[in-house]
């Protein structure tokens, strides 16, 4: 059993994917070909955002968003320490400082009631993460941001397809960023990502920054980067795009099935009122994670840990001066979380095998 098995998805959409790739090979526009614009239109329609801008990776999308907002050396960006390194890495890359806020212990998203105390005169943006597949309370976050005249960027790398009170992830804030890494709820077969906004000026600027700072060839208005999305990757995503809504439903159904079967033996994911969850990772908590992982491995069940160390514990962030104990909810979660195999094409027999192995290991 693979932790994330992409083969069944490819087999289901193989004909459409190959046809789309063949079109690109025939027309030869491998950089910014027509499939890129077609995919962007589909993504914007799906989320409800006015603009979708595909880029080379989810990491690039975050950096482009910060650059478009003018975040620079000496500025601060409020985010969380319990996330993949990209979220805070890009803040350092542009010379700004990540200011960490602890997480809520139930949904692993930012502790909204702690955001305001982290804001200083140097704060230039808020960067919450929609972790594991569900969104935090963006209405409350946007209200705090408006009070302090700050933009909000949703790091939606794990939550594309999720909703909160009917609003889709990637359309809840001024800018949203997502990743199309293959293991994500909506993935390509390489690296990729996208930005979303309904602000025309920001959309123009982000499109320029991803293309060396200019929209027209040989005209460069901003300091940019080579952050363009690959045409063949766009073609692959278009080939399997019609199946995405059903995959979102399947993720929710399998996640709910796991929770019903496991809630009495471990801490299962808590879904906040008004939320849907796409389970980019189905993450449970147990006091002795390593023992559970070893027992599951012996039963042939792969697991993964997102994330074994918080960002403030990583050497690259040591200069921020945080000591262990600064963010107790994040630190405890990092020692207790473990994720189980979940993909929208996981057979029910494999689901049963996983459930039985977890229950046996924890009995």
Broad structural category: alpha/beta
Counted by DSSP, the helix tally is 12
| CATH T-level topology of the largest domain | Aspartate Aminotransferase, domain 2
Which assembly state applies to the chains in this document? single chain
So what's the overall shape? globular
Radius of gyration from the CA trace? 20 Å
Per DSSP E runs of 2 or more residues, the count of β-strands stands at 11
Secondary-structure element pattern, one letter each: HHEHEHEHEHEEEEEHHHEHHEH
Mean pLDDT: 97
N-to-C CA distance: 23 Å
CATH homologous superfamily name of the largest domain? Type I PLP-dependent aspartate aminotransferase-like (Major domain)
**Percentage beta strand:** 5-15%
Q: Describe the sheet with the most strands.
A: 4 strands, mixed
Sequence stretches where pLDDT stays below 50 over 5 or more residues: none
How many structural domains are formed by the residues?
A: 2
- Can you list the strand order of the major beta sheet? 1-9-8-5
CATH architecture of the largest domain: 3-Layer(aba) Sandwich
Percent helix among the residues? 25-40%
CATH class of the largest domain: Alpha Beta
